[in-house]
Amino acid sequence: MRNSMKLTNRKITIAGSIIKINLYKDKPLSYGATVFAHGKSIRKSVCDDKGNRIRKLESKKRSLRRTRVTLINLINANACQWKNQAGDSYVPIFVTFTFKDDIKDIQEANAKFSHFIRRLNYVISGGCKKSILKYVSVIEFQDLKRKGVIHFHTVFFNLPNNSAYFLSHLWAHGTIDQKEIKEIENVGLYISKTMSAGNAKDTRLDGKKRYIASKGLLKPIEIRDQDNVKSIQSLIPKEYIPKFESFDGFQGRVEIRHYMLDRGEALSDVIPELNEYIG
Questions:
Q1: For residues 40 and 13, which has the higher predicted lDDT (pLDDT)?
Q2: 3-state secondary structure the chain
């Protein structure tokens, strides 16, 4: 059984204060079509021209690129979107957590990181067992000098700026490097660069998520109905001038328009009737 396939020549991705509109010049983008068998969706295996499966490493690199795009949108959807009691946006805080011991087992590293997050939540919440911290953490392997020892790159979206003391004292497994991300517009792109292409050669993340995300994060919005995209685009105030980018790929020529809203602003602030176009 197959649900109906739709075509569109434009797509909009809304991730916090960053709006991206893809315009497909040569080949429309198809979406909404999935083949079902026994209640489960079936994906065709990706093959080369000779019918052989693409080499595992190349497939992993493609998967890493897709994950990187997902990560960029997720981070941008949350960066500067969380506010304190005074109504001011939290500044995203980027922290690298390293291990002094040669920890290379992902399960062990994740367990230690999760325990640290629980303790940090307890302290930040004033002694309550609540998970109030919003964050995304990327698993990364250190260079050849430490032969793949695990470390974490983490961006916190609602961490108070006076938390440096708690971070350094609660993380008892190694060193931390902390900095506020104040001047960078595309926080997601900045953080995603920590996802090294070299990770594709390591089998430890096979079948596992390459990043850890806290519960309750804001989700990026993707709209593919071209009429809705046109309507939203027409409502974006003229002072938000798009930056243009283009490339030639599987879809042919694609023009991308980036709209950068004010820091901490969301498109729903600019277009109050946005919900009319989200289905």
A1: 13
A2: CECCCEEECEEEEEECCEEEEEEECCCCEEECCCEEECCEEECCCCECCCCCECCHHHHHHHHHHHHHHHHHHHHHHHCCCCECCCCCECCCEEEEEECCCCCCCHHHHHHHHHHHHHHHHHHHCCCCCCCCCCEEEEEEECCCCCCCCEEEEEEECCCCCCCHHHHHHHCCCCCEEEEECCCCCCHHHHHHCCCCHHHHHCHHHCCCCCEEECCCCCCCEEECCHHHHHHHHHHCCCCCCCEEEEEEECCEEEEEEEEECCCCCCHHHHCHHHHHHCC
- At 58, give phi and psi (nearest 5°): -65, -40
Percent of the chain residues topping a pLDDT of 70: 84
Beta-strand relationship, 18-24 and 252-260: antiparallel
Q: What is the pLDDT of residue 254?
A: 93
Q: What's the rounded Cα separation, in Å, for the pair 277 and 279?
A: 6
Task: Give the integer Cα–Cα distance in Å for 204 and 224.
Answer: 35
pTM, to two decimals = 0.85
Domains and CATH numbers, the chain: 6-72+219-277 (no CATH), 82-213 (3.30.70.1910)
